[in-house]
Structure formats: C-alpha cells, structure tokens
Amino acid sequence: MKNIIVGQSGGPTAVINSSIAGVYKKAKELGVKKVYGMVYGIEGFLDENFIDLDDYLSDKKNYELLKTTPSAFLGSCRYKLPKLEGNEEVYEKIFNILDKYEIDAFFYAGGNDSMDTIKMLSDYAKKNNKKQKFVGVPKTIDNDLPIIDHCPGYGSACKYIATSLKEIIRDNSSFPQSRLTVCIVEIMGRHAGWLTAAASLAKGKDCEGVDAIYLPEEEFDIKEFLKRINKLRKTKSSIVIAVSEGIKTSDGKFVCELSSGDRKVDAFGHKQLSGTASTLASIVAEKTGLKTRAIEFSTLQRAASHIASLVDVNEAEKLGMVAVEAANNGDTGVMAIVDSLGNTSTYDIHDIANVEKKVPLEWIDSKKKQMKKEYLKYAKPLIKGQVKIKYKNGLPVHLVRK
Amino acid sequence: MKNIIVGQSGGPTAVINSSIAGVYKKAKELGVKKVYGMVYGIEGFLDENFIDLDDYLSDKKNYELLKTTPSAFLGSCRYKLPKLEGNEEVYEKIFNILDKYEIDAFFYAGGNDSMDTIKMLSDYAKKNNKKQKFVGVPKTIDNDLPIIDHCPGYGSACKYIATSLKEIIRDNSSFPQSRLTVCIVEIMGRHAGWLTAAASLAKGKDCEGVDAIYLPEEEFDIKEFLKRINKLRKTKSSIVIAVSEGIKTSDGKFVCELSSGDRKVDAFGHKQLSGTASTLASIVAEKTGLKTRAIEFSTLQRAASHIASLVDVNEAEKLGMVAVEAANNGDTGVMAIVDSLGNTSTYDIHDIANVEKKVPLEWIDSKKKQMKKEYLKYAKPLIKGQVKIKYKNGLPVHLVRK
Question: Which of A72, A300, A400 lies closest to B167 in CB terms?
C-alpha cells in the first residue's frame, strides 16, 4: 500500500483516538508512505480536508498522548452516504479523490452508521473493479455492534459509569434516613441498555450498589417503579437508581416524553432524547413526597479519558492495527473484531452494518431489576487496568489538531 | 485530653474524610484515649450514635484509604442548633453527653452552617464555665468561608471541574461548524461563584477553554448572553459556556426560575436550585435555532475523589491535625485556617461563622466574561498533584462504615 487514509465518524469516545494511533503505527511498520487523516470524517473527505499524521505522530510522546486524548482527534461527522442509485456522482467523487492522493486503503472508525459507509464504499469498489480496500475499525460506547464480543470505547465508558456511581452512592448515603434522597441517574443508550447495565459493576464489598437498573430492552412500568421506591424507603437511607435514556412505557412512548412532548430527530432519524431522569425525579417527588435528585452523565461518559480502561485503550489500538494488516493482506468490506479472550480477526461488514446488538434478556433479572452474573462475567474484564495519564499543572494533557 | 469526638456536617466533599483522618492521627500522637466519631453529625450526637475510630483507623491501610474515600465517612446532617434562649435543654443535653463519655474536645468539619454550631457550643461553654473545647475544621467545596485563604474540598472540586471541562470541550469540538452545539455547563454555587470560576482553569496550550463564565456575583443579562452566542457562532465550531446555578437576572430572580417557577427551600432557608443550564439551553435553542446541550456536574463535583487534588487532600488532613493541636493547647471557639502559602493556624470562630466570602469583583473580567489572572494565580496551586488511588478490579476502593 502506498498511501492510506483514516477517519472517525459518529459520537466520539474516550479511546477512539487510540484506534487512529494503531492504524498509524501498523501502516508505518508496513512501510506505508503517507497516512492521511480525514478531518470531520467522510464529510471532510469530500472537501479534501486532510492532514498528514506524520506531522503529529512521528513524535513518540505525541503518539502516546493521542492514546489518552478523548473525543475525535481528527474530528467526526454524522454524514450518511446516500444510496448508490441516483447518487453515482458522490461515489465517483470519492474514488477520484482516492486516486488523486494515491490512497490504497480507507479506514473508518465508528459504530453502526460508520460501518454502513464501509459497506457502501466496498460494495461500490467491488462492483466497479476499484482496487482500494475499505476496512472498518469498531468504536462505540453503545456496544451495540454485532459479531464483535465488545466494542472499543465501551469498557472505558463502563469504568467511568461504575466509578462515578460508586462516588454518587457514597455521596447520597451521607445523610440519615430522615433526609432520604432518591437519586436517579440517567445513562446513555437509545435502544440497547449496555451502558446502563454497567451500573451493576459499582456493587462490591465497599459499595451496596444501585437499587435498581432499568434498561430499554424491557418495558418500563411506572407503577412498578413507584412501588419499588416505596418498598425501598422503608429500610434504606439512600436510594440510587440507574435508568437508560431510552426506556419506554407499554404504549411505546419514551419516558422523557411523558413530560416534555415529542423531540427532534437527528440526521439518521434517531430521536434526540434527554430528561428521562428529571422526568422520573419529578414524578417520584410528586407521588412519594421524597426528596429527589436527577443526574445525567451526558457526554462525560464518552469523554472521560482520565479514567479510561487500560484494557480498552490497548484493544482500540490493536484493532486499528488489525484493520491495516487486513487491508494489506487484500481484505476489504470487513471490520476488525475481538473476541472475549482478546483474540482479534476480521468479519464481513454485511453482517455488521445496520445491525443492532441488544443486551440478552436472559442476562437481566427482571424481578430484582439487576443484572445477572452472566453480564458481570462479561463486563468485569473490560474495565481493568488504569491508563498512565500525563498531567501538567494538575490537569490531564491532550493532543490537539492545530 | 482524655477522649475527643469528631463529626461532619453539611454537604459532603471529596476530601472531608481526610480531615477526620487528620483529627484521629494527631489525637493518637497526643495520647488521646478514645477518638469517637459521631454518626450523622450533631443529629447523631444527640442520639449518642458514636463509633470508636480505632475500630477502623488503627489499621494503617484503612487510614490511607479513608483519605481518598469520598463523601462523609461518618455521615452528615443539616441540623441547625436552635438559639440558646428558650432551648437550654438541647444545650444541657449536649454537655451531659460530653460529660458522660468524658469528652474533652469536640471537632466539627463543615462550612458556614457547621461553624455556627462551633460558635454556639463554645459560647455556651464559656458562659457556663464548661471545660470542653470546640474547634472547627473547615470543609466546603463552595470556598465561601472568610479569613481562610481557601477551603479544603475546593481544590479537588476545581480539579474535577477543569478536567471534565477539558474533556467536554474536546467532545463538543468533534463536529464541523455546520453541526455547532452550544454546550452550557452548570456548576454549583448559590451565592458565591468560586466553583464556576474554576472553569477558567481548563484553558491552556492544549485547550481553548470555555467561551464565557457567568458567576452569581454579577447580574445575569439574558440579552447580553444571546448576543455573545450569536457573535461566537460566526467564528467558532464549538461553544462551551460555564454558568453558576445561582445566577440571577436584574429583577433578582434565579435563571432557573424563568422556566420552572419557585422552588422549595431547605432546612436553612436556602432555595433549592437546579436546571439553570437546561433553562438557558432551551432559551438558546428557541432564540438562535442552534443545537444545545445542558450538562450539570451535580454531586459529582463534590464526590469525585478519584481525581482529587493531592494538595487538597494533604491540607485537609493537616487542618484536622491543627484543630486537635489547638484544642490540646487550650484553644476553643476557633477554626483551623490555612494561608496562600500553606501555613496553618487558628482564628476566632465569631469572625467566620455565618459570613459568606464571595469572588472579588476585581477578579472578574465583566466584558469578556472570563476570570482575570488574579484568580488563576490564586487557584492554580490548589489543583496540583494527583492522589494515589487504590484500585480493585478496575475501580477505586473506598472505606465504608459498617
């Protein structure tokens, strides 16, 4: 391969930059001349908004810094490639640009929507006898890609969620029962409850854990919810409950819509959600008279690289390397994957793009509203190890595009 | 001193337990027999809800663990002692309990309201020739105690705020200008803007910093705010603004009341606030058509001990020790204090209790809505150094009361 290009797409994570680092590392090992970074994903690609990664990463210190820099170093986008039919000129433009820069392989780090881009481009290349290779690098805190055991980004988000919940649980249990507060913590996840399930990791010898976990995989019953709180208040001096932003009632309505009406949709047609915890906190305050508090982890759960999982950062880097190796071996239309033991390989993108993996129902204890041991066994290895953060004047240092 | 007792009151912090550790350490050095901990502050004291700190802290590992455990290990309360006149029986009860347990000194870690307790009890003791000493140990993330240069708890909260803002700023700048998001981050502080001022610490070589900072020390002008955003959107692809929960408009109304009506008040008559960021985010979305996001740090800013400041943790411990030394030397009705160079001493509680220290107006750049260099010089030393956290299975370990 003479030159290659790498980009990022979709929501940023704490470790997606580690994948970019991995792509760069392996490419340089293989003697690739130029490793281009597309700024703002495929959207920037169409504007030929490229940088030469040598300018940043040939310095070994910068390389290490990139691995612990949050968000998308290259910038991201939410641009969805149009269907081929009737939009041939977009595809022709992309391949003209690839030819112009003598780019032999295109790597895209992202989740479901980003893998759709890899599928579309590799399909077009095959159909039109183009030589360029297209390989996906998995990245999503949502952990909802199929085939792969777990997605880079998920482990670090889990570590942030469990660490923060341990601290919130301590905070919420400061006061005696006479000042009981019901603390409702909202965690990201529209349809899949993977991130909210990580709330179960907080429990241990030094932490009583959250009192209930509500995932979007199960219907949300407000009566059951209030009944549970009224039972808990009899014995506990602190109640902390984790809810997924995407929980829905039996009539298919998002809980946050109970108070705030319908929301806007994003470019992919996803509903923009927020306010599930505050909606529930208001209902609980009104129906029980208890003091309530709503907490949203918001973007912190995908950006807190200062508490990233070492296992996750290293896997993200490794999968970037695996993707480059695959393209170098002639693979295209595939995504780099990892199994539960950390073994890596690649898989056909057609079985991955646009397929959403949810939390298995048999891992959820519906009665206790807790995760079963199968989930804990799955998730515990993903949060292990602490990254070494470079600090300056008491704050973590990041690598930033000029 | 034969026996002593220590308690915590008010909102918990990331380092208040380090003060309890300091009290224990110095007392043991001085040969104190029993160091009692009152569970749930003065409220638990009245119920004689005591623990013997030897049961936890004679183990050196536990002692170190306590220093990095968030929230109030002993439990806290928001109980305000009634005025002496007409409530003599409460005071008599307290002194009877002190006599019963042969307690010679009473230490209370907290902020303004807690120092009021020390004042009331030491005044009563003097008036009634009681021998017991009463010494305050400063603790408040709000940093609003007078006389003392800065309060234990503040530095760690600043470090959390600046670290999280650096991550949020990276996250928010992922997308091109066409997807510009106005991110409004709400930080604690009813009347004093100390915590919100810490947003200024995020700025550095690797971070553009927040675009504006709004403190409660200055009147909030919604027109100026919208004008600023409309100016920023012309050149920036990301806008991040820090606002204090307690900002008020010219008619004296809290911003969060603009949308949600009047709020409840707590036991001390403080208004319970929340929703300043979401109120502003809604207004910005409506008036500018821009995508907005509201983030509240909520209790995380006072509980995130995993990113505590080493300077802060050590000072909290030291001030606990200073308090015990003072009582041992016969001092009462005082609070342990620290100056800007880390020198410690004690000060008359009457000049401290119920006095609120605000951010000096001359430290605020009203036009740019930024903090001036005087604030940066003041705050930068407080966030220095990282604590060594004990991790188990990828999560920080805490010391918890049985």
Answer: A300
